[in-house]
From TrEMBL:
<dbReference type="InterPro" id="IPR003439">
    <property type="entry name" value="ABC_transporter-like_ATP-bd"/>
</dbReference>
<dbReference type="Pfam" id="PF00005">
    <property type="entry name" value="ABC_tran"/>
</dbReference>
<feature type="transmembrane region" description="Helical">
    <location>
        <begin position="28"/>
        <end position="52"/>
    </location>
</feature>
<protein>
    <submittedName>
        <fullName>ATP-binding cassette, sub-family B (MDR/TAP), member 10</fullName>
    </submittedName>
</protein>
<feature type="transmembrane region" description="Helical">
    <location>
        <begin position="209"/>
        <end position="231"/>
    </location>
</feature>
<dbReference type="GO" id="GO:0030218">
    <property type="term" value="P:erythrocyte differentiation"/>
</dbReference>
<feature type="domain" description="ABC transporter">
    <location>
        <begin position="309"/>
        <end position="533"/>
    </location>
</feature>
<keyword id="KW-0496">Mitochondrion</keyword>
<dbReference type="GO" id="GO:0016887">
    <property type="term" value="F:ATP hydrolysis activity"/>
</dbReference>
<dbReference type="GO" id="GO:0005743">
    <property type="term" value="C:mitochondrial inner membrane"/>
</dbReference>
<dbReference type="GO" id="GO:0005524">
    <property type="term" value="F:ATP binding"/>
</dbReference>
<feature type="transmembrane region" description="Helical">
    <location>
        <begin position="133"/>
        <end position="152"/>
    </location>
</feature>
<feature type="domain" description="ABC transmembrane type-1">
    <location>
        <begin position="1"/>
        <end position="274"/>
    </location>
</feature>
<dbReference type="InterPro" id="IPR003593">
    <property type="entry name" value="AAA+_ATPase"/>
</dbReference>
<keyword id="KW-0812">Transmembrane</keyword>
<dbReference type="GO" id="GO:0015421">
    <property type="term" value="F:ABC-type oligopeptide transporter activity"/>
</dbReference>
<keyword id="KW-0067">ATP-binding</keyword>
Length: 547
């Protein structure tokens, strides 16, 4: 007796044998034994399925996260002007979590539902192909409905994730600038703004819930329709002696089974479509080809590198603001081993010049060369490793001072404690750092904010006490570092500029004046002279305001 039809035969036996208790007991006993076996095997198989799917699913999520993170870091800097931090963080955490859910728990449950439905449908065909064909007429319209529903769900899920990314973006920006928010007392208005964004997410989520409930309602209804059609058509077949009671009752049971599987399948399908929607932006990120190569191009041997820099007819506008050119036919030459101070009014493009040199952006026209070689032919990684940048803003990661210093090395793993102490000595920071209770192991927060309150106070006090000599120490450290290098300084103070070999004054999208600082100061009508006078005036004003 074959298993799928076993139940039907048992029922038929009971039905036809009347009061034959012996046959009835034997049939029921064998049924119980078979079901126990099936449940035990089923339980073990289910546990294995859950574990395997979860474990491999988590592995897929981990791979997805690392691939997305690596794809983000490979993008050119202009990409980050268009895509903001909070949004990208949201893609990395929330979107991957949604995709993760749709391929872990959900996929596991979905596969079970598919297997159950397939088994149920096979049994239906086994018992009565004609009745199964009739009952399953409901499948084509349901499939069309599912496709329409799936598309809608995908798009709404994408919109929900976008709205969530907007909310995260706002939160990230405000939290990372909490000092400014607090200084202006904007906490309440920022909460209102965040609430608006959260409301956008909520209304999309409610729409999704509504459409999902509608779909579940329809699938539930289709299950009931299947049962009704079995009762109707099966009744007719039984009346015409084409079906026995056992066959009809087992067919009905399999129809129930398929109905339950369809409910599971629709839930699986919904989650899968939601995952596809959330994943759309992730696939976009993964497929995006960075506009600049990351680690390709020429590498110069140290002997070939002298360090002469030249900007030839450079025109440039930021990709996000093409209508506002920063440079137009700018020309500038910095001989190897000299110090060039770049000055100019605020917004004249001093930092942009450095960004072009570091190849964070490419000029729209013209070329930039190092020792006569177009920097576009050089390996960008190599290029940046040979340009040391010292920023006005301290850029620190939230780890120990030791790790922050080692970060600058080509291979941080190979850096010894002595290397770190030496680097700190050269930067005149050794004594300052050692004065912290935990010395080089002091953990600094984001942007250099120290984590513990006591250390924070300590650092502020120290910074205050050393502030007077600090400027001198930094200057002295820089001078030591500049030896034998080509240097571009973006400077405002005359004291820094005076030591430069030449000064380039940026104005009106080009180099307006260029020459030795003393010579330029001598020109009473010159822009450099005016800028320095203004600077001196502002400093005096500031000092007076502080008194
Ligand atoms: N990533 C960017 N995307 C779009 N515009 C930018 C970007 N960075 C700077 N700008 C704009 O380019 C112009 C030049 O900026 P840049 O920072 O180079 O000037 P700067 O001379 O260094 O100014 P400051 O002395 O105030 O630091 C400014 O109008 C600035 O708003």
């Amino acid at each position: 007796m074959s298993a799928p039809f076993f139940l039907g035969r048992v029922i038929d036996t009971i039905y036809t044998s009347g009061t034959d208790t012996e046959t009835m007991t034997a049939s029921l006993t064998s049924l119980c034994i078979m079901l126990t076996g099936v449940f035990l095997c089923g339980g073990a198989a289910n546990a294995a399925r859950v574990y395997l799917m979860q474990a491999s699913g988590q592995q897929i999520v981990r791979n997805l996260r690392t691939s997305v993170f690596s794809a983000i870091l490979r993008q050119e800097v202009a990409f980050f002007d268009k895509n903001r931090t909070g949004e990208l963080i949201n893609r990395l955490s929330a979107d991957t979590a949604v995709v993760g859910h749709s391929i872990t728990d959900n996929l596991s449950d979905g596969l079970r539902a598919v297997a159950q439905a397939a088994a149920g449908v096979s049994m239906m065909f086994y018992v009565s192909p004609s009745l199964a064909g009739f009952v399953l007429l409901i499948v084509p319209p349901m499939a069309i409905l599912a496709i329409i529903y799936g598309r809608y769900l995908r798009s709404i899920s994408k919109r929900t994730q976008d709205a969530l990314a907007q909310a995260t973006q706002l939160a990230e920006e405000r939290i990372s600038n909490i000092r400014t928010v607090r200084a202006f007392g904007k906490e309440l208005s920022e909460v209102d703004k965040y609430t608006q964004r959260a409301d956008d997410v909520l209304s999309l989520a409610q729409k999704e819930a509504l459409i999902r409930a509608g779909f579940f309602g329809v699938t539930g209804l289709s299950g009931n329709l299947m049962i009704l059609s079995v009762l109707y058509k099966g009744g007719l077949l039984m009346a015409s002696q084409h079906m026995t009671v056992g066959e009809l009752s087992s067919f009905l049971m399999y129809t129930f089974w398929v109905g339950i599987s369809i409910a599971g399948l629709s839930s699986f399908y919904s989650e899968l479509m939601k995952g596809f929607g959330a994943g759309a932006r992730l696939w976009q990120l993964l497929d995006r080809k960075p506009q600049f190569p990351v680690n390709e191009g020429q590498v110069l041997v140290p002997d070939q590198l002298k360090g002469q820099l030249e900007f030839c007819d450079v025109s440039f506008a930021y990709p996000t603001r093409k209508e506002a050119p920063i440079f137009q036919n700018l020309n500038l030459r910095v001989p190897a081993g000299t110090i060039m101070a770049v000055v100019g009014p605020s917004g004249s493009g001093k930092s942009s010049l450095v960004s072009l040199l570091l190849r964070l952006y490419d000029p729209d026209n013209g070329i930039i060369t190092i020792d006569g070689r177009d920097i576009r032919d050089l390996n960008p990684n190599w290029l940046r490793n040979h340009i040391g940048t010292v920023s006005q803003e301290p850029v620190l990661f939230s780890c120990s001072i030791r790790d922050n210093i080692a970060y600058g090395a080509m291979d941080p793993q190979a850096v010894t404690a002595e290397d770190i102490y030496n680097a700190a000595r050269v930067a005149n920071a050794y004594d300052f750092i050692q004065a912290f209770p935990k010395g080089f192991d002091t953990v600094v927060g984001e942007k250099g904010v120290l984590l513990s309150g006591e250390e924070l106070k300590h650092s502020i006090t120290l910074a205050f006490k050393t502030a007077v000599i600090n400027e001198f120490l930094v200057q002295e450290a820089l001078e030591r570092l500049m030896e034998g290098r080509t240097v571009m300084i973006i400077a405002h103070r005359l004291s820094t500029i005076k030591n430069a070999d030449s000064v380039a004054v940026l104005d009106q999208q080009r180099v307006a004046e260029c020459g030795h600082p003393t010579k330029l100061l001598g020109n009473r009508e010159g822009l450099f002279r005016k800028l320095m006078e203004k600077q001196a005036f502002l400093q005096e004003e500031q000092q007076r305001a502080l008194l």
